[in-house]
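Ticket #4471: complex job returned nothing on first submit. Input attached below:
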Amino acid sequence: MPATDLKPWLKSTQEQVDAALRSFLPRENAAPKTIHKAMRYSIFAGGKRLRPVLCLAAAEACGGDVSEALAPACAVEVMHTYSLVHDDLPCMDDDDLRRGRPTSHKVFGEGMAVLTGDALLTEAFAILARTPATKRYSVGDYVREFAETGGSRKLIGGQVLDLEGEGKQLNKAQLIRIHEAKTAALLTCSVRLGAMTANSTPRKLEALTEFGYNLGLAFQVIDDILDVTQTTEMLGKTAGKDEAVDKSTYPAILGLDKSRKEAARLTRKALKSLEVFGKKGSRLEQIARYLLEREY
Amino acid sequence: MPATDLKPWLKSTQEQVDAALRSFLPRENAAPKTIHKAMRYSIFAGGKRLRPVLCLAAAEACGGDVSEALAPACAVEVMHTYSLVHDDLPCMDDDDLRRGRPTSHKVFGEGMAVLTGDALLTEAFAILARTPATKRYSVGDYVREFAETGGSRKLIGGQVLDLEGEGKQLNKAQLIRIHEAKTAALLTCSVRLGAMTANSTPRKLEALTEFGYNLGLAFQVIDDILDVTQTTEMLGKTAGKDEAVDKSTYPAILGLDKSRKEAARLTRKALKSLEVFGKKGSRLEQIARYLLEREY
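Support reply: We reran it on our side without changes. The output follows.
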């Protein structure tokens, strides 16, 4: 499958995900209107849908039907969005811009932004619970996997470490620990849930766990680099923020050149774990290469 | 079953719930420590465990094994606690005291309190997913019920209406709408989940839905009354808060006397729906009477 095929596939998959999100989320005019408007404001702010795309590609790699994986694909995106809404709050990272638009609390006020995040998190589980069970995996398995990923030892734990690390000089190991928790965990969960809807064998699930982990770390290194090298306009969020708040990042610890090499090394490692899928893994491979080749 | 039996049963049930909560929640010394400490701080602040108690009593009323209902009993308490932590935030109700102790953000800071609420909400789903399925109800059913109750049209929707109604003169219908969403929904969910673990018939589930709804409204009317008539010390939270922030409450709209009558009327209505359970419903009946007879 030549790499030129990726972009149209990405576009149509993102559209499919957006349509599913529109149908899964409560309508904008459902009462109380403010919260439903605020939920949709953050969800439809033009994200790349990276996590859903990975989830669906993983289902495909395991020989599954992509339509069975739409619910978990949306669930991971909704969980990701809730975490952004809360991370942007004044009492957390205090960000005014996200995906090129004012952040939720800037538009709806702080109290409403807290509730919007809460509602998205709750809705993520509601959406996930629509996923059909397979021979090997039950809805309980999906929910346990998802809750563990979103919980105090992974996604939220990473934000805690991030919050506590601000203004401190972290070493590489501490930084990796944050990236594992904040980024790699949800990327891993995305591919795993996709695979589970395709009734994946334990061996393939293990391979995707490796893939998600390394891809997640690579992704975060690249994000750190982009924060330094790109403008606010290009990023859609405040550029140079990490340095301004004296945040430990890959470029700050290793320098730009070594950070780029680290991203490439992690991506190669991720690609290696796809070997077990043969030709069926080519979509995941394309996505991983595409992420590495983002302009940075 | 004479009413004198209730207190020792309540005490031992509360202890059973606390023991289960201790085993379900991540350990206090798990990394990152701050969040796990903060989660336990709010969970073990001496709540009455009303929702778990109702969940277990409902399982009993449907002839079920109480131990099968411990996971949902804890899940509803953890969801309740998350909602308190977030409602107390400066950008929401801005409360300094809860259950007689400083609120989460007073002790751990605002950012950590947001994350603590998030972690509790996520953990609530993790705990719920441990509930054994029955012949009629799957883990997916539990999760859908729970997510709907906690979501933007019920629990969170109620807080939205509450936030938007502050300083405005609400009428009785608007007030009921808030109480339905903020209080009655989670009480109803508590008894329903308990019943589902006992493989309840649809008819009994319907009766418990009526029971939970009316008991929830009665409970909230009584809470409004207590806010006026009790001291901060007796309440364990700031007394007179509703009047101070010009909040619409039952006593403010109907006066104390009519509010008391309304609470009694709703409790009678709740008790009526227990008839279908015969003697097996006596524990639920005792709890309902006990709540009505709180000093107010």
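Chain B has one domain: 3-287. Closing as resolved unless it happens again.
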